[in-house]
Amino acid sequence: MVTTRFALFFCLLGAALSLAWGYFDVGLQGAVRWLIGLGALWAFALVRRWSWFSAPGFFASLAAAAAGLWLGLAPGWMLAGALFALLVWDLTDFERRLRLAAEGDDVNGLARVHLTRLSLVALIGFALASIAMIVRVQFSFEWAALMVLVAALGLSQLIGWMRRGQR
Amino acid sequence: MSRSIFLGLLVYLLLLWGLASVRGELLALTAPLVLFLLIGFWRAPHEMKLDIQRTLSAERVAPGAPVTVTLTVTNRGATLDEVLLEDVLPPPLSVTDGSNRHLVHLPAGKSAAWTYTVSGPRGYYPLAEVRAEASDLFGLSRREGVLETSGQLFILPPILRLRHIPIRPRRTRVYAGSIPARAGGAGVDFFGVREYRDGDSPRAINWRVSARHTQALFANEYEQERVSDVGIVLDGRERTNHFGGGRSLFEHSVSAAAALADAFLNQGNRVGLLLYSNYLQWTLPGYGKLQRERILHTLSQAHAGPSQVFADLDHIPTKLFSAQSQIVVVSPLTADDLEVLIQLRARGYQVMVVSPDPVSFELQNLRPRAEVALAARVVRLERDLLLRRLQRAGIRILDWNVLQPFDQAMRRMTGRWHAGGAGW
């Protein structure tokens, strides 16, 4: 439980600082203040164990990262910020689930497996996104739109299929 | 909103934004999110195939006694990354040690076992369900299920051992027992004198009477002792049992009924139990230990309740009781019950009333003020009058202050009954 909590605050710090640094780099001081404020609020929510806050916090961080990319800020910081926010969002829910465990349960074992897999996903995700940003392939707009449409449909189908399977 | 849908929506928004702004970086930002979703779905839990075995350290216990529950769960299906198992406990059963909920990683073919301790008040508790919620490692897809198991826990009312309770119904059964049968034969107590018959023991000859009648010999006859039918009526009406602050006399009535049933059955009688609450529950009369179990099971499930139909004792189905048998009513009593009880007596039943005293019970929790004392005096007078009328009708009364243990109250009262003679 302690490991998860430590990882949670570490990721939150990573998310807030990465995004803030990215904006600070180009002199957008107002945005930096907002991002630090968001980080502080999220930390407060974590201390108070307000699990619901992680979803709006993640959304806001992702929006900030996307806006930063749109504004042409350093993509590395934005990507790191979004990725750390994803980890915070996931770990908050994981911690909530761990709180349901009984005293004798192997909480440390579950946390170890979870953190290992999460780190792997984060690393692979970061690598994929970095490659996608570095390798630039020229597509026509129509081709890109078709690819996005196919991806969106595929994802919808996948989510729908998984949700039906759960019933 | 489900976590997978939330994440999916974020991915769509990013895709749309990337497409609208023609920025490849925004599309690239979706990569970790999509990977997260895909891995979550790849590790989504399959159909749960869990075998569950529950063992209890005891199935019949006294109220408040700890019962150790051991639950063993075996996974017959695919590996479950995270599964939250919860043994569903019916209220007001409570966990006193350990936990009825466990979060485990359950590989295929493996088992997880744990124990915890529960205790609770009187009642019947079916332990038939275990709730399971499996999820992937990232909590994106969940699968819930209720797994049926077998198990039950009876928390029986405490049984106080009573000594012999003197009853004398008009009609007894044919088997030998301990109740005077109002018929001559083999016994202990002198019953009368009759002419000596062949086969009588010479020791039975009453020489004094025979000396007066030179034509024949006379022998003493003793009163036969047999078993009887006893019907116990347990009053579970809310209006007589419930008081302010959620306090109830019903638990006391239940423990009295349990002690009485046990004592009558130990005397060899045939005992039946009628629960008169917001419903009628009749436990057919029977003998011995099995009947004791039946009655205790009924009592463990008994509860007081409100009813318009059964607000008065008018609906006691007297046909359930054998003619001229013994009826024991366990009730705090109200003034309306007088007529019904007298009618029972008039029909030839021997009636005994065990009445937990509601006045002293209520007074325990009231502040000692002048108004309270006056009110208590008035209701006490009303109750005394009611009890005296019942006694005058030939009904035996045990006015029981529940602060005193029932066995002591019963012992004191039976002593008085013995001292006062049979009287009925």
Describe the structure.
The complex is a heterodimer of chains A (167) and B (424). Chain A has 167 residues and is mostly helical. Chain A contains six helices and no strands. In chain A, helix 1 packs parallel to helix 3 (54-70), helix 3 (54-70) packs antiparallel against helix 4 and helix 4 runs antiparallel to helix 5 (107-134). The mean pLDDT of chain A is 86. By secondary structure, chain B is of the alpha/beta class. Chain B contains ten helices and 19 strands. Chain B has helices at 3-21, 24-42, 207-212, 238-241, 250-266, 288-301, 337-346, 358-363, 370-392, 406-419; strands spanning 50-56, 60-61, 67-75, 80-87, 94-97, 101-106, 111-119, 123-126, 129-135, 142-148, 152-155, 176-195, 218-226, 229-235, 270-276, 280-286, 326-330, 350-356, 396-400. In chain B, the strands form five sheets. In chain B, strands 16-15-14-17-18-19 form a six-stranded mixed β-sheet, sandwiched between helices. In chain B, strand 17 (326-330), helix 7 and strand 18 (350-356) form a beta-alpha-beta unit. The longest helix of chain B is centred in the C-terminal third of the chain and has 23 residues, at 370-392. The model of chain B has no long low-confidence stretch (mean pLDDT 88). Classes of the chains: A mainly alpha (167), B alpha/beta (424). The interface between A and B is large, with 57 and 56 residues.
